[in-house]
């Protein structure tokens, strides 16, 4: 597969942008990309020809979300973004930790990635790709640039060391409900060894709340301690009351629809289409009070249909 010069240039620009937000050395940053320090040095100087294989370029492009296919979907700074931004900055500055548990499809993941890309020494971990403790720790080690080779306990100790020497590190664990029990226990150990050094932020849906609550109620080792380290609370952005909830979703869907729809006169129509509540797959009942409002993923489908 051939990688165009334009794409290499885009990926290099993304690398340099993220390097500015990484507080470690050039050598450590190179490790986060799975390349050698000498290769990174050449790219830093502007070289892009014959320094990496096509696969390596693509891996780095994927890591930094370089828009290879020129996706026309536009990012909107919604209320979800603003509130998550405030929470991320607060946690990093105060070295505290929080758990965000909220509805699926409100843009939590997209907002988290956008915010972290602007923060210094902030790292994103997708727990849906790192279920086990070994994969979780090695993924974190890769993000921190402390290397993934060697025995597991050595990698783990390097992760703790890196988090303690970096300036105000912040780690966001998305889809945190997907982590296995052993990974939660390992996370507790890392947090114990990085107290007053690192801020943590968990993101999940109802499954995360249920897993932690069940673990605490069943007196399962580690869950009460983990919850305590995350401020003994679940933070939510979507209001619980029916009317406030409706207003929240109306604004959220409207904000995203407005920046993505070419014909702005159809925004209200699209909002109405998304505000239909569903209580089960393939079953729709208008006006249902305890149902789930269609998400931004459904909105994206509608927008794509309007463009076709």
Structure, described:
There is one protein chain. The chain is of the alpha/beta class and 308 residues long. It has helices spanning 5-20, 26-32, 37-44, 54-63, 79-94, 108-116, 133-144, 152-165, 181-193, 206-217, 223-229, 242-260, 267-274, 296-307, and strands at 98-101, 122-126, 170-174, 199-204, 277-280, 283-284, 292-293. It has a 4-stranded parallel beta sheet, sandwiched between helices. A 3-stranded antiparallel beta sheet has the order 6-5-7, with no helix packed on it. Strand 5 and strand 6 (283-284) form a beta hairpin. The longest helix is centred in the last third of the chain and has 19 residues, at 242-260. It starts with a helix and ends with a helix. Residues 279-290 have low confidence and may be disordered.
Largest beta-sheet characterization: 4 strands, parallel
The order of strands across the largest sheet is 1-4-3-2
| Overall helicity | 40-55%
SSE order in H/E notation? Answer: HHHHHEHEHHEHEHHHHEEEH
End-to-end Cα distance: 29 Å
From the alpha carbons, calculate the radius of gyration and give it in angstroms.
21 Å
| Count of DSSP H/I helices | 14
Query: What class do helices, strands and sheet pairing give?
Result: alpha/beta
Strand content: 5-15%
Overall outline: flat
- Total number of β-strand segments? 7
Mean model confidence by pLDDT: 89
| Low-confidence parts | 279-290
Domain ORC1/DEAH AAA+ ATPase: 94-210
Pfam families: AAA_22
Protein name: ORC1/DEAH AAA+ ATPase domain-containing protein
Organism: Chryseobacterium vrystaatense
